[in-house]
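sanity check this record:
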Amino acid sequence: MKKSALQQVRAKYQPKLPKDLQGSVKIKLGDATESVADQDEIKRLFPHTYGMPVVKFENDENPERVEEPFNVGIILSGGQAPGGHNVVSGIFDGLKSLNKENRLYGFLMGPAGFINHQYMELTAGYIAEYRNTGGFDIIGSGRTKLEKPEQFEAGLKILKELNIKALVIIGGDDSNTNAAVLAEYYKNINAGVQVIGVPKTIDGDLKNDWIETSFGFDTACKVYSEVIGNIQRDCNSAKKYYHFIKLMGRSASHIALECALETQPNICLISEEVQAKRMTLDNIVSYICYVIAERAKLGWNFGTVLIPEGLIEFIPSMKSLISELNDVLVDYADELEGLEENEKLVAIHKHLSPVNADLYKSLPKTIALQLSLERDSHGNVQVSLIETESLLSEMVAKRLEEMAETGEYSGKFSAQHHFFGYEGRCADPTNFDADYTYALGYNAAMLINSGLTGYMSSVRNLTDHTENWVCGGIPITMMMNMERRNGEMKPVIQKALVDLKGRPYLKFASMRETLALNTLYQYPGPIQYFGPAEVCDRPSMTLLLEHNKEI
């Protein structure tokens, strides 16, 4: 089938490689590390992979020739993120630069393919079809959790059969937590298998000083920002709708914040701020109504509201309700099974504490039912299925009616609802993400060649020119802490939330009142792949601000 014009030209793009990875490389060891929290417990759980040093690569003027070829396996784990195919391409090219006989295998449809021995060899011709493209369709992805010894043993069997010495897991915080557990298990039994992680998530919550951003965040935010800009142009043209726009990001508001910096909406809610200020649902509705009423005084009955996907879990009162609902849904599962909607609501209501029962009863029926849906594999409420944008607009409409009766509001209110999630997960990567992911993959191959295990591929100094990016790796254990999951404490990578003292948030906060009471929309337009570097290669505003660069 003929490819689109963009696909044909984009296939020819050669990602730029940092100087650290050009030619032969040697490893430089840094200081020993420790976990971000719960050091004694993490050290106890990971005795063979805890405390390892941060490593950095440098050019090697006197390289040792790689004599023995080796094979590597890869797993794409969790949700898709733009640039995954370039991680695979980078690993492949890195392996071939070490020894032409090295081979790469992909396990199909995520960790399940690893456990069930479903795989394919990834050849140069096959990979060529996927370079610089979005999606994970090169081998597929999945959400099976790698956490049980029998799974590790089943996977080890196929690794030995294919003579694979290293496994690369490309995923988010949970997937890389699993990579750390797998690395520890194989090291403990002397399996002779290395495990390397690659930081992936569009949510942007997998980062620290050494992982400056997760791949896919830049592309996804620019896709969403283009569409938000289009909506704002329409909004400013028709001048009759308020657009409530929910954006992906269940555990952090990085996407909403970045899109706000890119598009300058009238309102952007930040979950971390809501939690820090202990705002109630009523407080949030009051703030939105204040902005709408003030704009109405200026004759503007239109605007845009950005809402992070996970907002509802950051409202303290809602968080308490959800926590109790989690227990009720488990403890009274038999009683609730098969009930029709109204009966189910009544049954749940009677098992809640008085405060949570009142809040549950005050919610629109659709939201109450959505909060009562089956939990995900981690025991969490499925926030993507909760129509927070509809909840807020419905409550705002009701409040505005009350304000109109008392003379506090004299405008017209009509709402439109949007949820941008899947639209950004598989876009062709920006030049930044195409370069970054290729470097992450190539770098992973060098980590493997250095004999390391339990490390995450790290490429930093990302606001500088690509050739000056700093490459190396960090022990996954140094990112970990203990958290309660499904009723028990488990080691997991600590999520990076929006820093309310950080420059990205403070920049938006400084503009908030001006944006609310004016119409200063920005229109980023579509991702540019060809043209001047300041247009095509610019990293996210979040990254620029975090590195004290101007935007």
Summary: The mean pLDDT is 95. The longest strand covers residues 25-32.
